[in-house]
Structure formats: structure tokens, C-alpha cells
Known about the structure:
The protein is α/β, with parallel strands linked by helices. Helix content is 33%, strand content 16%. The strands form 2 sheets. Strands 3-4-5-6-7-8-9-10-11-12-13 form an 11-stranded mixed sheet. Pyridoxal-5'-phosphate binds at residues 121, 134, 136-137, 140, 142, 371, 376, 397.
Amino acid sequence: xxxxxxxxxxxxxxxxxxxxxxxxxxxxxxxxxxxxxxxxxxxxxxxxxxxxxxxxxxxxxxxxxxxxxxxxxxxxxxxxxxxxxxxxxxxxxxxxxxxxxxxxxxxxxxxxxxxxxxxxxxxxxxxxxxxxxxxxxxxxxxxxxxxxxxxxxxxxxxxxxxxxxxxxxxxxxxxxxxxxxxxxxxxxxxxxxxxxxxxxxxxxxxxxxxxxxxxxxxxxxxxxxxxxxxxxxxxxxxxxxxxxxxxxxxxxxxxxxxxxxxxxxxxxxxxxxxxxxxxxxxxxxxxxxxxxxxxxxxxxxxxxxxxxxxxxxxxxxxxxxxxxxxxxxxxxxxxxxxxxxxxxxxxxxxxxxxxxxxxxxxxxxxxxxxxxxxxxxxxxxxxxxxxxxxxxxxxxxxxxxxxxxxxxxxxxxxxxxxxxxxxxxxxxxxxxxxxxxxxxxxxxxxxxxxxxxxxxxxxxxxxxxxxxxxxxx
Length: 473
Ligand SMILES: *Cc1c(COP(=O)(O)O)cnc(C)c1O
């Protein structure tokens, strides 16, 4: 049984953009920096809370502090032109609608929906797309519950950032819990359900229960793993520790376990400091005591965690706390991508050096991994073939499972930062999966459950291969 924590009365409160000027830590910045922060936060979503400010950020080390970089807007996150437009508006205290119009324009240039998430992964039920679901790989369905479309704090690099800024067209969420359950009951190939967002842990426990409890009853025997993607252990560990909301969530985990299924917490940890506080460690212990398994993942981000020692320390702490390191991701091509960009060659070196330093128990982690249009692409290393240095890759997950685990090679270079930047190694026009991928994504070419074709697909449009093909035409 779960016991209530003795400490209580800890209440979450979001700190938003309009409160920035009144934070003592921000008042201590010089005027230019404050202006830049107000300008950037008008474009990119901003939210923190007292736990992040007081327990995770070392204010003697700003602006370099990794959690400060991860949560507070920095001037270089916008291009110099965009920054100056926004600064002018803030300086002359422009009306809200003028500020919003300028901000929207900039956002739409920042590739708010990368990698065909919205166009290609939305499944159909009885011929209609179900908003708020993604079903890309046969065994796993993603669900974005309506009440879970925010977080306890926002990461400046978030690839779901468009969710948070009220751009209706870009939002990805569901109010259709019944449809979700109906869809699952008709798809016996689905063994895993992943609740994601935003962060489902911002939801009241009773709403989470409404999503999860039906999956424990007859008709859903095929759903064996119930995953919850969250950053709440980092941003608001009290969610698992204090009060009735915490206890009722943990009871839900116990019930999932009692029904013979695995509750898996897919925890987002960017930096070891997030694991250092007593309340975060207690949150981990309580989840585990309730039968939850915690797997950990995060993207590799310049200014935040771009060193081997940070990852080695993070994985080491995670393993000691009973968590399982799972993925090191490459950040997607969205938002302030230039600010956070780590080229693949460097990402690979960081992964390899970190992996060599840790216990075998931490080497469950795979990286660098890109969640790209054809699947989850894993950069496995460099090789030398006939005197030329190459990248070796594989798809851990493929839109077509037949593509998985087959080694393929690209030219090596120091600048590429995404799968679509890479060139096939041996003069081929495209990687082996490419033709079939384009066919799958064409109108009527997909599986039944993939209904819609992209109006705008940045991944294809930007791709080196396609540009080459167009040139050759
Ligand atoms: C990563 C991912 C999954 C889950 O993949 P695992 O390797 O099983 O963790 C499912 N769906 C999508 C769209 C994903 O990106």
C-alpha cells in the first residue's frame, strides 16, 4: 500500500511570461537581456515554476546554467532580424494583437510540425481521422489526451512547442477518449499505448484514470504495456509525492500492475541535476514501489547537455536509482534549432565516449537516434570502407518493419545534423527505403489507417535527395 507523504501543502503554480519582470532573478539581469527575454518569450512558449527556479537552476552560473538554458528564453534563439522586430515591439509596448501577429509570422517560419507528425501518423476510424492519436509503428499507439496539453515547465527546444501557443491548426490533441478505446479494441496488433502530450502528468488523476482504466478490462488483452511520457519527475516531482493526487496516481499504477500489465514511465531527463533533489529521488522510489518501471530519454542539446561527462553522469545516477536508460535523441529540425544544434558526427562522439564510461547496466541506451519520416534512425558508428570514412546507420523502427535492423551507409561529414542531410555512401541516388517511403506517403499509397497526404512536408521538401531529383529532371 502507498502511504501518504507526511509533507503536504505543496501546490503547483505556473510562472508565465508576464511575471518575468517581477522575478528577482530576472530583475538582476541587465536591461538588454531583459528586453531580449521579453521579445523571445513572445514568440516561443515560456513557463517555469518555483521548484525549477529554486532547486534546479544555479543563479550564480547564469547564463551558462543548463536548466536556465533549458527553460529561460535566450536572445540567440531568434534570428537577429526577428529578434530586432520583436524587441522594437516590446520596447514601444505595442498592443497585444500587433505583438501576436508578428510572433505568429516568425513561428510559422520555424517549422512547427517537423517530420510529418501531423500529416502521416494520424490513424483513421471508420474512415475519419482521429485527432489526438498517432499510429506510426504497428505495435505502439500514441495518445494525446485533451487535458494533458501543457507541461509543468516548458523546454526551450521542445519539438511539440506549437501545441502550447494556441495555434489551432498546429495543435495535436484529443477529446475523443471513446474513439481511442474503440480504435484500440479493433487493433490487436497494438501491444503498447503511449500517453503523451504536452505532459499527461499535468492531468488530474481521475482524467488519467478515465483514459487508462478501460484498458484493464476484457477486450484489451493485447495491450500489455501502458506507457506515460512525462517530464514531471524533473519539473514537478511533487506530482508523485505529495497529496491525494499523488496517491491516487500511484494506486492507478498498482492497478495496472495487478491487471498483469506494465506501467512504464517514459521519463524525460536532460541533465543529472534533475535527479539530484531529494523530492525527485522520492518520486522515483514511489513510482517503483507502485510497480512502475522508469525508462529515461532526452535529446542531445547544445548549451544544455552536449558533453560526454554529463550523459555518463546522468546514466550512472539513473541506473543507481533503478531507472533504465533508453534513448539519446537528436533534436528535431524545429523551433530555435540553430541554437541547439549538435551535428551528428559530434553527437556520435559524445554518445560513444559516454557509453564507454558507464556500467554495463546503463548501456541499454541507444543513440544518437532520430525520429524521422521513415522511422527511428540510429547512427551506429563510423566505418572505413575502401579507404573512405562513412557513417553506418540502421532503422530501429521503420514505417515498414522490413526496413528495420538493416545496416546502411552514408558519406561522413562534420556538419550534417539530420537524416535528410546525409548522402548515400556509394553514389546511390537515395537510401534503400526511400522509394517505398514516397509510395507509402502518396495519396492512397498508405496503409488503411494512414488517411491524409501532406499539403506541406518539410522533411521531403528539404531533403537533399529530392532536391537532387528535381535538379536532374
Ligand atoms: C519512438 C516511437 C515509438 C516507440 O518506439 P519504441 O522503440 O518502442 O520506444 C512509437 N511511436 C512513435 C511515433 C515513435 O516515435
